[in-house]
Amino acid sequence: MAMPGAIAIALMACSTSTQVTTTQEVSESVHAPFEKILVISLFDAFDPRAYLEKEVVLKLAEYGTDAVAATTMMNSKTPVTRDTFLAMVDEIGADAVLVTQLTALETKGKVKDMRPRRTVNYWPTYYYNVFSVEVTEYVEPQGVELEHYLALATELFSVELRKGVWAIAAESKIVFDHEQTSDYNVYIDEADAITKMLRKDGLIARK
Q1: What is the dihedral angle through the alpha carbons of 80, 82, 85, 86, rounded to the nearest 10 degrees?
Q2: Per-domain residue ranges of the chain
Q3: How is residue 98 annotated by DSSP?
Q4: Is 20 strand, coil or helix?
Q5: pTM higher than 0.85, yes or no?
Q6: Distance of alpha carbon 12 from alpha carbon 186, whole angstroms
């Protein structure tokens, strides 16, 4: 699923709140916990895909589950197709595939005044304890603060059953500060939310 380029900006902003809900509960036919998971992020920009996949893999490892990020087995020119991922599943012997993609992105902007900056120079005069002071204030142009509403859907597929067996939706309110260019913690937070739900529902080991 293709995503607007704005997702790269939204995921590099400063997250203020995230709410996760289960949209598909685990069926009784699922043989869990899964032991080898292929992790896939379907964003149109390669770097955000790699960042989120990496953090999900690291979080899964903390719980004792082996996982591989799809972006470590491809580059930005590799076709993002079903056949590509099926070949990865066969190569690593995965028993499950975890797929995250965008379902909604809404952005609102508002103008904010920048903080003024001052320089102060002072020097003594002929009078005792009396100084001459020169203050220069620099006022920058107004900046724009962006507020994003971001919704991601994550689905787990069983290789044995050849179908989706679990799914969640994560909704986040994200503020992009005009003085902040990036915050990698957003990827860590999203990965943490996904893997905690997998562990809670018994789909990965409870290390």
Answers
A1: -160
A2: 6-110+145-200
A3: E
A4: strand
A5: no
A6: 7
Separation of alpha carbons 107 and 174, rounded Å:
9
Looking up tokens 């991601």 gives 152
3-state SS, residue 109 = strand
- Rounded to whole angstroms, what are the CA distances from 166 to 26, 36, 201? 5, 16, 9
Cα separation, 60 vs 196, whole angstroms: 9
- Backbone phi, psi, residue 191, to 5°: -60, -40
Alpha helices, DSSP H, located in the chain: 6-10, 46-62, 82-92, 185-200
Q: How far apart are CA 190 and CA 15, in angstroms?
A: 10
Class of domain 6-110+145-200: alpha beta
Report the C-alpha gap between 125 and 92 in whole angstroms.
Answer: 78
99 vs 190: CA distance, rounded Å: 13
pLDDT, tens only, 16-69: 567 899 899 998 889 999 999 999 999 989 999 999 999 999 999 999 999 999
Q: What is the DSSP string of 144-189?
A: EEEEEEEEEEEEEEETTTTEEEEEEEEEEEEEE-TT----THHHHH
Q: What six digits make up the tokens of 184?
A: 């990698």
